[in-house]
Predict the 3D structure of the following.
Amino acid sequence: DGGITQSPKYLFRKEGQNVTLSCEQNLNHDAMYWYRQDPGQGLRLIYYSQIVNDFQKGDIAEGYSVSREKKESFPLTVTSAQKNPTAFYLCASRERGGTDTQYFGPGTRLTVL
Amino acid sequence: AQSVSQHNHHVILSEAASLELGCNYSYGGTVNLFWYVQYPGQHLQLLLKYFSGDPLVKGIKGFEAEFIKSKFSFNLRKPSVQWSDTAEYFCAVNAGRNNDMRFGAGTRLTVKP
């Protein structure tokens, strides 16, 4: 069953703690993305990676970090430097080629207490 | 920087009413255009996309969208909505060499039975 998985679905952390969100895909896609979804603001790009061992900042990268050591995995760390980390986080991947279509995981809702 | 505007934040319709959701973007070059839908509790799913050719694009579940280049618009339409169309709809634009996507703020559609 191919797709994108994100775990866990709900995550709670205390303020000041770093937390890592998982994103795994078995679609053999090269590019992967992290978005943050807030009510009334749509999806905002945090980081993206076009290929293994390479990634670029998106529009709201401050307070976040990523790694891309494997094609299948693109974990996102929300650090204590992120001022307002409570949000819904979506991971996506994009197939190689001309369609540019992104496919999304189910998301992780992070609540920082 | 490219941006995407969705003018309606919340639309409420009765079943069988016609739907049109507005989407405008600000980018002068070649663009790829998408509509995604997020049903309550579900993944973000691709509804339809435009890359080239016929500016009237048909998607799943009876949705269609028309690309009007001169107006920088890609409005989503459905002639007769159903209760099951209740969801949040996002317009997205992909342009530029980095292939990063820009999303609108989303339009929440509520269809009353």
User: Anything to note?
Assistant: Chain A touches chain B at residues 31, 33, 35, 40-45, 48, 50, 56, 58, 90, 92, 94, 98-107 (CB under 8 Å).
